[in-house]
Specification:
Elements lengths: L1 E2 L2 E6 L4 E5 L14 E2 L7 E10 L5 E7 L6 E6 L6 E5 L6 E7 L4 E6 L13 E5 L5 E6 L4 E9 L2 E8 L4 E8 L5 E9 L5 H5 L1
Antiparallel strand pairs: 1-2, 2-3, 3-4, 5-6, 6-7, 7-8, 9-10, 10-11, 11-12, 13-14, 14-15, 15-16
Length: about 200
């Protein structure tokens, strides 16, 4: 994610964060540019939820837990000081599938996927969080519904989903300010054998 002329990154498998300044010479041997910052390991390793610049201007990443463990969380790198903060098991035994930034809050969706284990069946969540990753709103969905992506577009929060109960795909739509759920967008049927490719 670009911020203030620099590029902030997170990576698998070490749960690492990095910052790169393209205006300066490349010197990774001395950990100068790119510079490796503090890691979230051993609790978390894979940035499955991807990364965003949050409404506070800092770098947030959604993670799954360490290899062979269900769960995950969110990390934050202060883009000025490079200080790390992280929140583990925000929803117990659920990973962060996707994360997005809105006007004042972060949005995330959870899943049962993790490194080294079969996906765990559960009732997953859409989350609205402040920049200290306190949950200010959440909604849990019925068993069989899995989320693929969350994005903020204009004043709307859009959440892609697969409903394994009806073999339907679609997009849940919310008013960002109130989290009122608006009519969803139906996208059509899907083949369960293609779900892994859809998630990727």
């Amino acid at each position: 994610c670009p911020k203030d002329g620099k590029i902030f990154l997170s990576s698998y498998v070490g749960g690492d964060h990095m910052v790169y300044d393209p205006k300066k010479p490349w010197n990774h041997h001395d950990n100068i540019n790119p510079k490796t910052l503090e890691s979230v390991r051993p609790l978390m390793t894979r940035p499955m939820g991807k990364s965003v610049i949050g409404p506070d201007g800092n770098f947030f990443t959604g993670w799954c837990a360490a290899y062979g463990v269900y769960g995950g969380g969110i990390s934050r790198i202060d883009t000025k000081t490079y200080e790390l903060a992280s929140w583990y098991q925000i929803i117990p035994q659920q990973s962060i599938r996707s994360i997005a930034s809105g006007k004042r809050y972060l949005y995330a969706v959870t899943c049962g996927e993790t490194s080294g284990l079969h996906a765990r069946q559960d009732r997953f969540y859409i989350l609205k969080l402040d920049c200290d990753c306190n949950i200010v709103w959440k909604k849990q969905y019925e068993l069989g519904i899995v989320f693929t992506k969350v994005v903020v577009v204009g004043s709307f929060v859009l959440v892609g989903y697969i409903d394994n109960n009806t073999n339907q795909t679609g997009i849940y739509v919310f008013n960002e300010d109130t989290m009122e759920e608006l009519p969803s967008i139906k996208l059509g049927d899907y083949d369960k054998n293609d779900q892994e490719n859809t998630n990727n």
